[in-house]
Amino acid sequence: MARPMARWGVALAGGALWWWAVVRLVCAPGAGALEAAVAAGGWGLSLLPVHCEPKEEADGTVDARQWVRAWRAGRVGRRAGSAGPVERA
């Protein structure tokens, strides 16, 4: 029971700190780099749960070995310095 309460406490304290920074940036003429850093950092952290997930669970992922094979296959038949694939007769 103590762990969930501690997590909630940390989350609430972090949220309060973020809101303090945002309100201070908007309302106080003397707000500076500290408030901006806290506000930007909190916004950046808010994106993590949405955009990060394990590669094995992501939809449409491709095995890394398949990318390597495709990359190497695209280089076959090219000359150094040429703009495109070499025509084979």
Would you kindly provide a written description of the structure presented here, covering whatever features stand out?
The protein has 89 residues and is an all-alpha fold. The chain has helices spanning 2-27, 33-51, 64-75. The chain has three helices and no strands. The model has no long low-confidence stretch (mean pLDDT 76).
Short description:
By secondary structure, the protein is mainly α. It contains 3 helices and no strands. It has helices at residues 2-27, 33-51, 64-75.
Class per helix and strand makeup: mainly alpha
Q: What portion of the residues fall into strands of 2 or more residues?
A: under 5%
Per DSSP E runs of 2 or more residues, the count of β-strands stands at 0
Poorly predicted regions: none
Q: What is the share of helical residues?
A: 55-70%
Mean pLDDT value: 76
Order of helices and strands: HHH
Give the overall shape, derived from the CA principal axes.
elongated
Q: Helix count? A: 3
Annotate the secondary structure layout.
Layout: H1 2-27, H2 33-51, H3 64-75
Describe this protein with a few key phrases.
89 residues; elongated; 64% helix; mainly alpha; single chain
